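Why does residue order matter? Because the sequence determines the fold. Keep that principle in mind as you read this record.
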Amino acid sequence: MSLRSLRIENFVLIREAELRFSPGLNAVTGETGAGKTILAQAIGLLLGARGDAGYVGPAGGEAYVEAELDLPEGVLDDPELESIAELRPTDEPSLVAARRVFADGRTRAYAWGRSVPREELAALVERLLAMSGQFEQRRLARPSFQLDVFDAYIGDDQVRLRAELARAWREHGAARRRHEELLQAAAGEEARLSELEELVARTKGFEAGAEERLRAERERLRNVTELAAAASGAAEGLAPEGGDSAGAGELTARARAALEPMAELAPELAEVARELVEGEVRLREAASALRGFLATLEADPGRLEQVEADLDRFAEAKRRFGAATLDELVARAAVARVELDARAVGADPSAVAARELAATKARVDGLAAELRTARAEAAPRFSEEAHGALAELAMGGGEFRVDLAERPVGGSGADEVAFLVRPNVGLPFAPVAETASGGELSRIALALRTVAHAGAGEPTVVFDEIDAGIGGETAHAVAGALRSLAERAQILTITHLPQIASAAEAHFRVEKIPGDPTHTRIERLSDEARREELERMLGGAAFLATIQ
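Structure:
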């Protein structure tokens, strides 16, 4: 499951809605004009749609939309998402994405409560949630998305090979930059080597993470008096050393001794006595631990001075070599050490880098060739199956074709994929995003995802307009395709067809509530309310009675 919840506040006619979705097929229904389109617009904001002053409802000066989405492993590894990935809180398994629209139409985008550029948030949400309509047209127009769908169809081995190539491509890029740096640095080789030697010498003994540890230790040492007073007071309260006063441990022992003789008369006191025994032991152990802690505070009175000196060395070294962090400095020193060691045994760094560059290039070319072979073999099969899936969704009058073309090798291979359709016999093939209407695009997307084994890699798909212009057997076919896709992806469909709504695991109704002002309510339906809604969609009880 990907889309856990959606919260909407003061958005057009929606005062407030808190929606929690099923992991399978979710249907949203309602009368024409009730506000289903408003729900689609709210989701569209998270996918990067521009703000509009008309989105702000009458209940305040701003509108707000927030979604919580699961984050599959590896999603944030994409270099394009590097800046937004840095904002992710530690151990946070999901994404909290939000858009706020102000009265003048300006908007702010947020990830985990932190302000981010609208385009960056949209780029991340698009990897977790796909939406039909204008957003589907934008996705289907991207060759990279078509390639993702096609490789998902080919299978898990192809997806694994893609990931392998992406890693090899990054390694090749690093090798190329390294080789270019060495060639450019040839003129100033002596100065560069001197710099490397100084870097290695000044970072000797430095370890990644040491700066954070020492800063924490410094704070502790600076507050040693307060720590000692707290620990000493606590230890004395638990188990005083000398004197006539009794500590918590002794008082607990006395309480236990007072209860034990009475245990036979009142068995329930036996359990209390046993708990007091455990409490006494723990209190005395705590007192011992506190005194041990006090001993460590007194162990090295000159430690604070040493910690301050080490932190100063770290800071000076970072300034000298222009490093933002100690970890970066340690990493650069490790690279410098490798080069200096290579020179010590007579190796030419430029020659080593050239061999590494050639090796990574051969690896990239080999993987790209494997991907191309699989794609060429699968293209006719995918075209045939996609055409069959389209025919089942009342789009069988045309043809579907996958075209492969060569392009310069990159992280996804050396192929460019184009999905083409011919709506009617005699017409030329054209890109799908340029020839289909909104409803047709939704059905094309459904057909492609149904054919692709991995659901096109999208945990959540939102379908709007998928039932435009269809009914009868086609509606049943679309419902079946949605139900099948929902077995491996979360689906949210906004529909007016009872055939589709009845197939859903969760059913939400959108209705307009008259008042001053009129507003839209969205709620998840109970089983009884769902039957009533489906009856309404079929024409109401009076209509059903006329055809029975």
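The chain has a mean pLDDT of 81.
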